[in-house]
Amino acid sequence: MLAEYAILSRETYLINSGEVTYNLPEGWRVQRLKDPTDKGIWGNRYVVFINDEKKKIVLSVRGTNNIFNVITDVGLALSRINNESFIPPGQSELDNLAEEILRSNLVKTQNYNFKIIGHSLGAVMAELSAVKFGIECIGFESPGSLNIMQRHPNIYSRENFELITSYLSAPNIINTLNSHPGTIYRMYLPHTKGLNGWHIAECLLNSMCTGASCVSVNAMPIMLFSKQATKELAKQIVKKSFLVASGTKLGSKFINWRDEVAWLKTQHEIDNIVDGLNNKVIISKMASWPTIWEELKGSKLVALARDFFPLQKDRPGIRNVFDENGMREARIKRIKGYKEAEEVTRNNNKNFFKYRLIY
Predict the structure, then answer these.
(1) How far from 318 is each of 45, 199, 205, 218, 321, CA to CA, in Å?
(2) Residue 100 in 3-state DSSP?
(3) What residue segments make up the domains of the chain, in order of their start?
(4) 288 contacts: CB under 8 Å, gap ≥ 6
(5) Does residue 349 register a pLDDT over 80?
(6) Whether the Cβ atoms of residue 61 and residue 94 lie closer than 8 Å to each other
(7) Yes or no: is domain 2-187 CATH 3.20.20.140?
(8) For the residues 233-253, what does the mean pLDDT come to?
C-alpha cells in the first residue's frame, strides 16, 4: 500500500503536465485536479484520487516544481535560520480543499477513508492540514513541520501529531531542515547505482592529499633544525608537498560538491522512492532524526583535522574506493541525533531483519 501512495505522489507531478505519465495503481482514478492555473498564485497543485473498491480518498500535494515553490522553499529555510514561523503560501487553499472533502458524502455517509499525502514541500503542507483537521497523513522526504506547529498550538493540536507518518531517505539537507512530528521511518535507498567514477577519483585525490600532507609535516622539523644543505632540500619537499596537498584537496572538494548534488537528487526524488518501494527497500523505524543545525554545531576544527587521517571508514580514501555505500552509511552513523528504534539496532540478533518493514 505504501508504494501506491508513493506512485500517487509521483503522479501529482506528472498528470496533465505534458510529460510522459505512468499508469495509476489498479483501482485508482483522478477525481479532481486543482492546478496552479486554477487561481493558485503560488504554483501549488493538489490532486484528489479515489479508489471506490477500497473506499479510499487521497488528497495529494505536489512538492517543488516551479519558481514560486522555490520561493516558498527559501522562506522555509530562512525562517528556520531566524527561528521564526513560516506557513507556506497557499496553505489556506489546501485547508479549504481538505475541509471540503471532510464534509463530502463519501466521507460523512459512505465511510470512505481519507488520507492526505505529499512529497518534499508538499509533505510539509500536507502535514499542516492533516494536524489542523485530524486527518491521517503520509509524507515522503518532508523538510519537517514540527517547528511551525509548535509556534501555533491554537491551530495545530499536539494530540494530532501522531497522525503523521514520515518516510525519509538518508539524512540530507532537505529532510533535516526542521524537526518532524509523528512517526519517522527511514527508507534505505541505495547510495549509488553501481561503480561511481567520480567517487573513485575523490577517494584517490583525498589519499594523495593525506600522503602529501604527511610528507610536508614530517619534513618540517628537518627544515627547521638541520644543516643548511639538508634544510634546503627539506624546504623544497615541504613546499612541493604542500602544493600537491592543496591542489588535490581542491580537486576532491570540487568532485565532492558535484557528487553530493547527484546523491541528494537520487535520495530525494520521488521517482527513486517509488523504485525503491517497488524493489522491496528496507524501512526502519527511527527513535530520533537529526536536524542540520545539530550537525553544524559540531567542531569544524575536529572535522578538518580528521580529513588528514588515512583509512577512515566515513571519509573518501583508498579503503572506500569500492564501497561508497559503506562510506556513506558510516558517515550517517556519526550524525548527532540519528538513532534507529531499539528493535532495529540489534545487529547481533539473528532475527535482525524481522524487525524491519520490507515493502
Answers:
(1) 47, 11, 9, 21, 5
(2) helix
(3) 2-187, 197-265+300-331
(4) 337, 338, 339
(5) no
(6) yes
(7) no
(8) 79
**Half-sphere exposure of residue 75, counting CA atoms within 13 Å on the CB side?**
16
**Cα separation, 58 vs 115, whole angstroms:** 5
Number of CB atoms found within 10 A of residue 221's CB: 10
Range in 187-201, 220-234, 283-297 the model is least confident about: 220-234
pLDDT computed for residue 15 by the predictor:
81
Q: Could you tell me which of 22, 21, 48, 20 has the C-alpha nearest to residue 35?
A: 48
In the structure, what pLDDT confidence band is assigned to residue 302 with cuts at 50, 70 and 90?
low
Residue whose C-alpha is closest to residue 342's, from 330, 331, 328, 356: 356
What pLDDT is recorded for position 76? 55
Q: Which residue has the cell 506528472?
A: 14
Q: Give the pairing type, strands 113-119 and 56-61.
A: parallel
Check residue 172 and give left, alpha or beta (phi > 0: left; psi -120 to 50: alpha).
beta
- Smallest CA-to-CA distance from 309 within 195, 196, 197, 217 is with 217
3-state class of 113 per DSSP?
strand
- In this structure, what C-alpha cell is assigned to residue 264? 541528494
Q: How many CB atoms sit inside 10 A of residue 333's CB? A: 12
DSSP per residue over 162-225, as a string? Answer: GGEEEEE-S--TTTTSS---SEEEEE---S-SS--HHHHHHHHHHHHHHHHHHHHHHHHHHHHH
Query: What is the separation of C-alpha 319 from the centre of its chain, rounded to a whole number of angstroms?
Result: 26
Nearest to 169 by CA among 126, 112, 119: 119
What is the per-residue pLDDT across 180-204, written as a single tens digit (0 to 9) for each? 999 999 999 999 888 888 888 888 8
- Long-range CB contacts for residues 191-199, cutoff 8 Å, separation at least 24: 191/263, 191/266, 191/267, 191/324, 191/325, 191/328, 191/329, 192/263, 192/324, 192/325, 193/266, 195/322, 196/259, 196/324, 198/255, 198/258, 198/259, 198/262, 199/259, 199/316, 199/321, 199/324
Q: What is the pLDDT of residue 95?
A: 93
Cα-flanking dihedrals φ and ψ of residue 116, to 5°? -120, 135
Question: Tell me, what's the pLDDT at 357?
Answer: 53
**Across residues 133-159, what is the average pLDDT?**
93
